[in-house]
Amino acid sequence: MMNMDLSTVIEEMETGDQDSALTALQSYNKQMNQCFTFNRDEQKDREHLGELVLGFLDRELQPSCLLACLETVRILSRDKNCLDPFTNQFAMSTLARYASIAVDSATTPAHSQSVDGQEEDAGGDEEETGLCSKVLKESSPPSENPDQEVIVEALKSICNILLHNETGQMVAADLQLIKGVAERLKQCHDPTWNYEVRFFDLRLTFLLTALRVDVRAQLAQELHGVSLLGNHLEATLGLCCSGTLETARAGFEGIPTEELPPLSRQQTELAMEILKILFNITFDINRRKVDEEEAAVYRHLGAILRHCLMSHADGEERTEEFHSHTVNLLGNLPLPCLDVLLMPKVQQGSIEYMGVNMDAVNTLLKFMEKRLDRGHKLKETLLPSLNLLTESARIHRETRKFLRSKVLPPLRDVKNRPEVGNTLRNKIVRLMTLIDTDVKDCAAEFLFVLCKESVSRFIKYTGYGNAAGLLAARGLLRGGKDPGIYSEDEDSETEEYREAKAQINPITGVVEEEQPNPMEGMTEEQKEYEAMKLVHMFDKLSRNHLIQPMQLGMDGTMTEMTTEDLHKLTNKPLLQSEDPPNLDSEDEN
What we know:
The chain is 54% helix and 3% strand. By secondary structure, the chain is mainly α. It has a two-stranded antiparallel ribbon. A two-stranded antiparallel sheet has the order 3-4. A hairpin with a 5-residue loop joins strand 7 and strand 8. Helix 9 (177-185) packs across helix 10. The termini are far apart. Residues 108-130, 561-589 are annotated as: Disordered. Keywords: Chaperone, Cytoplasm, Guanine-nucleotide releasing factor. Interacts with some GDP-bound G alpha proteins. Does not interact with G-alpha proteins when they are in complex with subunits beta and gamma.
C-alpha cells in the first residue's frame, strides 16, 4: 500500500466515498501508527481531517471503514494541540456511542443498535445506579458478537482526549460517561469482554476519577464504587471469599498465598488499574467516621488487599509495583478495618507472634525496608508504607509488639551512635537527621509509637539529639509521656545496657570517652566572664537576625528568647537552672 501525504488523504475523504476513504485512511494509519510527535505546520490539516472523520462516523459505515476512522481518531487525538474537533459534545458522544458507554439517548443517531445481552435491563440496575435513561450500546458490530476492536479504539481515543484536554474532561462529565462505563464494570464475571476492553474501561475510569472531583464523588457514592471495584478486583484475581474475611484463589483453597503461582501479566495490569481507581475514590476516607455498612465494605476490601500484598506477579519489578499500589490503598482504609491484615489463621510456615498471623505485617516491613535501602525519592516511595506501619502499630497491640521486636529489639550496642550501623533501627534513626521534614517526622513518629510514646524509651533508642525535633513539637522536651492506649510490656533492659546506663550520654545515646572539663582550674570570676561573653555573642547574633535563641518553657515547649530574656542572663549569669528532667524515671516497660 502506497503512503499518501496528508493533503491527498483529505482529498480522498472529501469525496465522501467509503472505498476511497478506507484506502486513504488505512495508508495514513499505517504510516502514523507509531507517531507520537507531530509536525506543527500540518496542524490545521490534521484538524480538518479530524472533522472529516467525525462526519463519516455519523454515517452508516462498513465495518472496515468504521474501524479505520476510529484508528485515525486515536492517532490524531495523541496531538494535544489538535484536539478541538474532538472535544465538543457531538464528537465525545459519538465516540462514547462506539465505545458502548453512551447514556443519553439523544446523542445516539437512529441507525444505532444495541449489542444483544449488553443493553441495560430497564429494571433493577437502573434503579440501583439512578440512571434515568438506558445505557445505549454500540451499534456497528453484529448483535450476537460485539466488535470489541471498535470499542477499544473508541475507548483509547476518549482516554487520549481526557489526558490532554480540560474541555474534553468537562464534556465527558456532562455526558455521564462514568455511568456507562460503570455498567460494563459490573459485568466483571462476563467472559464476553476481552482483556483490552476491560483494561481501557478501567483506564478511562482512572482518568475520570483522577481529573474530575465531581466524577470521583459520583463513583464513590452514587455508583457504590468501592463495592463495585472491590468485586471487580476479586473477580480479576479469581478469589473466593469466606465469611471469615479470609481469601483464597479459586482452585487453590488451603494453599498459602505465598506458595500460589504468580499472577499473569494481564491479571496484574487489570488489578493495578483497579487499585489506582480505588485510591482516587477513597483518599479521604480515613479522615472521617464510617458507619457499620461502610466498614463492612472496607474490611472486605482490606481482605482482598491482604491477598494482593501476599501475592506475586510475573517478575520482581512488577511484583513491587503491584505491592506499591496495594500499600497506597491500604493507607486510605479506616484504621479499625486494618485488623483484617491479622485475620488469617496461623498455618504451617506462617510467622506467628502472640498467637497472631503476622505474614502481612512482615511483608509490609520488608517492603518498607527495601524502599528505605534504595534511598530514591523517599517521600514518594517510603512514606506510604511507613505511615501504614505506624498507624497499624498505634491501633493494634500485637502489630506494635511484633514491629518493636524487629525494629527496636533489646538494646545491646551502647558503643555506636543510634544512627550508625545497618540494623533497621539505625536506618530509621538516620532518616530523623534528613532535611526533608516529612520523611524525618514520619520516621520519628514510627519509632515514638513503637516506644508507646514514652519519652525516656524514645531517647534511649534514638538519643536526645535525634529525638529533640519530635519532642519539641509535642511539648515533651521536659520528659513525660503522651497519653495513649498502650499496654504494658516486659522489661527490655539487657545486661549490657544496664551496666553502661550510667555512662551513656543521653544526647548521643552512646557511651563516650570521658572528656576533660574545659572550666577546670578557672576561678569563679573567670567562669562568669566566659559566660558573659557567650551571652553577648548570642545577643549579637540575635540582633543581626542570624539566629533566634530559644528557651524551654514550663509546659515543655520551645519559646523565643527576647532581648530582655538575654539581658536577664547577663545580669544573673550564674543563676542555678532547674534540675533537668529525669528521663530515666519512667519504668522500662
